[in-house]
Amino acid sequence: MRLVIVGGVAGGMSAAARARRLDETAEIIVLDRGEHVSFANCGLPYYVGGEITDPGALLVQTPERLRSSLNLDVRTRHVMIGIDTDVRELTVRTPVGVEQIGYDALVLSPGAAAVRPDVPGIDSPRVRTLRTVDDALALRGRVTGGAARAIVIGAGFIGVEAAEALAQQGIATTLVQRSAQVLPPLEAEHAWPVTRELQRLGIDVRTGTTVQRIEPGMDEDTLTLSDGTTITAGLIVLAAGVRPDTEVFEQAGITCENGAIVTDEHGRTSAPRVWAVGDATVSTDPITGARRPVTLAGPANRAGRLIADDILRPETARPLPRPLGTAIIRVGDLTAALTGANRGELDHAGIPAHTLHLHPNQHAGYFPGAAQVHLTVHVHAGDGRILGAQAHGTDGVDKRIDVLATAIRAGMRVDDLIDLDLAYAPPYGQAKDPINLAGMLGENVLTGTLALWDARDLEGVRERSLILDVRTDAEVATGVLPGALHMPHIELRDRLDEVRDAAAGRPVRVMCASGVRSAIAHRVLAQSGFDSASLSGGVLTLRAALGPDADTVLVAPGVMQHA
Amino acid sequence: MRLVIVGGVAGGMSAAARARRLDETAEIIVLDRGEHVSFANCGLPYYVGGEITDPGALLVQTPERLRSSLNLDVRTRHVMIGIDTDVRELTVRTPVGVEQIGYDALVLSPGAAAVRPDVPGIDSPRVRTLRTVDDALALRGRVTGGAARAIVIGAGFIGVEAAEALAQQGIATTLVQRSAQVLPPLEAEHAWPVTRELQRLGIDVRTGTTVQRIEPGMDEDTLTLSDGTTITAGLIVLAAGVRPDTEVFEQAGITCENGAIVTDEHGRTSAPRVWAVGDATVSTDPITGARRPVTLAGPANRAGRLIADDILRPETARPLPRPLGTAIIRVGDLTAALTGANRGELDHAGIPAHTLHLHPNQHAGYFPGAAQVHLTVHVHAGDGRILGAQAHGTDGVDKRIDVLATAIRAGMRVDDLIDLDLAYAPPYGQAKDPINLAGMLGENVLTGTLALWDARDLEGVRERSLILDVRTDAEVATGVLPGALHMPHIELRDRLDEVRDAAAGRPVRVMCASGVRSAIAHRVLAQSGFDSASLSGGVLTLRAALGPDADTVLVAPGVMQHA
């Protein structure tokens, strides 16, 4: 049995290793177009930034070690240029010529290639992607070589990591992003804090902007942006996304869709005895049903293993899970993470959802180092299932997103989160963990005990409602919505008549700092017959969602009197 | 509607707060025997140790704030001394006399009292429990007053936290524990590393030892231990466990079992309109079915909320979940945590289980700060469900235990862990997270792809098998099992005949450092017809499970030649 694997990183190498564990006798050949296999692709930005100091550490495995430990035949600098699925044979360009390699089973793990925007000058030698060990070595060389200015094109995960890495090395760094915010999969209320953190690190963040032209210069290139400004930089990182290169597969008659390989639930392509895995394949979103490639290392690694099972013991192989797209990024002191669907994807798919916002401490408030986890959870408005979640904060973010990713995979309803027995001691959590609190909040919304209003609907709410601000005097001094009625929540029970007069028949929309006191106030109002709702996540979420506009929307309290 | 709640901490106060949110009109009275309500009982050791500096921070709420925010009538120093469930009336001793208080609904949240061993001298004024704010203030006073020597009686969670707190303040501290290890719910392979960490902190740990006698002295008491030694100490913390004080409830005819109040799935006692919550109630273990009180803040807080639901909107109230007993402790630089059943509980319940041990890094190995998470997972040998898990390490332990607690609650099988989309970037995890790896290991065991042998069975294995040590030369220099055959795993494929000769028909039991290479070796051997198995968790688990005996069992490699 000869198993040939094209692509020796992530999914491909996982398939190879698993195949050997299952079958000592198989011949296993791994072909890779690059110099290295099984390298730490997710570690490259940290090497550029000097946080990982040993380039050898990026090489998780070498062909020699894979040979001695797992008896794998690993061939680097081998580029597959053709497949004949009828005779089961590959055409491969090697360092010494072109050769044919037959297979009994074939795993395609070719990855994806960087998108190169159609911009004059994009082929400047100062423009470099960050996809391979060679890329990282070259960029690191320019960093230590004294580059003064850098520009990163694209503020996705790799672009943001690259920008931070360069800025941390003292390089004046500009981050250019076509869309309106960095990290497009994030909700606005999480993306804006990331932008602020990038700015704190000294990075010039230009969203809603594209590069129009790159002109070579003596020491630096000059980039002209869509806003008309120009920037010079000696180091340009191209991180505008990736796209599978499926031409050779399509020529071989393997079914593709939107430029990615279509596979069944076992990773099988349309061709017999040909499987595919990773960035080049289409996945179905388990929440929205959307079909798109998921370019993440985790799902690829795990799918590679399952594909080896399907090749070597098909009768018991489990199906590949539909990836949730859980992702995480460290930006300065912040962590931002997401799992499942975001609001835009839910809206696009027409899935009715409640969106919860909360800001609990990551551990007991009385224990040193307490810090808020800013959490968004989307809940199916019908059956209460958790559809997606996002969070940012300085500590405890990864844990909560992982618990929520587990809960989503388990098909849990939001109120199931109440019952989770999470590990509590003061340095680690709260007796009511942020996850439990999200469950309680969600249950209150599903049962109608709590009605929420959303920062996204601010304009309409201001037009039609009395906004009741139940924060303390000291808190409102930091900025208020003009026209809001201010009444600390502890006074509400005694001042309901004032609220009734001010509302004059309009609904009352309550707000506080984080949504806790406004929820209490809502209960008082609702039980007194008011049409009431509580601002989801309070001013903390409102400010983050408004982003740079927050300081014009929330004004000095004196203005409130004149509204 | 008058709701009376007896006990204003954790479950009681959660019930009170929830009740108010549901019902503005109810009269809600909270009685507490102590000076303070809703205090940070889990924070007390950290105040004693000076990590929490402001005693005010321990008071999460005050009666005044609870009145103004939630309109609760909180009465401290009120001790319930009788219940008449027929006329629905309590007899209460107050600071000014005895009074009767009627109720429409009653919630009992009395907590538990410290166990006081029947030891001469236990009533010495130098002996103090650590259950209340007053206890913490008194102990802190003695710490800052210059106590030189301390003894902590009982190495459960509070005892260990107290011992660390005292040692960190420079006090010579002895920790005495009746059973053979600290933190009895932990498996030996997790308890021993905790002991070593306590020793590193300078604590004199005496397990398998009890206090026989306490004799008062001028500046210090003298304690005589069961091993005949004596210790003097100016400060003695009694942390030998807790027991509910149910006498008053039993007198009132409320059904109790093994000294704790019996409730149904909604927290209802045997008496009409009387509910109970927290340390004084019996819970059923969801894994083993064992019935015992669970003295943890988290389940109590959440159960209190559900009880308020059952009182005020019984038609939609959800049942109380059966608590898994998830717990966590910080000891020096270590974290140790557990969820679900441990091995002893599974054995006692007669539940057949596989036990997995693994030691993956908490994040990418090439990223700075990589550290192992030492993980034990119990899996049902029949249906593959996850039954329990424990872990220790310096980072990432709480996250993995929380994910596993969520998976157990969801009823997941161990192989479902493979599919979890956990958040991966190099600072946070691995493309194959420790949790995914546990799933892969478990699947391999369930399908027979991997056979394990356990450190607990070392003696029998040594008698009947060839032990094959596949570590490198450098590794075996740190200690080997006499009689083992040493052969680095990468040489195994070429030296199978040597193994066959040495085995002479016996089974081959493979071992390496952590269980990864021995699993690869097992696959090679099994596919070559050997009766083979891999040491679960390798030498890392073996050493931890052997504890102080490890250095006599694993000896200098020269000895191997003579075996």
UniProtKB/TrEMBL annotation, chains A, B:
Record InterPro entries = FAD-bd_OxRdtase, FAD/NAD-bd_sf, FAD/NAD-binding_dom, FAD/NAD-linked_Rdtase_dimer_sf, Pyr_nucl-diS_OxRdtase_dimer, Rhodanese-like_dom, Rhodanese-like_dom_sf
Q: Does the keyword Transferase apply?
A: no
* Rhodanese domain residues: 461-551
**Similarity field:** Belongs to the class-III pyridine nucleotide-disulfide oxidoreductase family.
Q: Which GO terms describe its molecular function?
A: oxidoreductase activity
User: What's the protein name?
Assistant: Pyridine nucleotide-disulfide oxidoreductase
User: Which keywords label this protein?
Assistant: FAD, Flavoprotein, Oxidoreductase, Redox-active center
Q: Which cofactor does it need?
A: FAD
State the species of origin: Brachybacterium saurashtrense
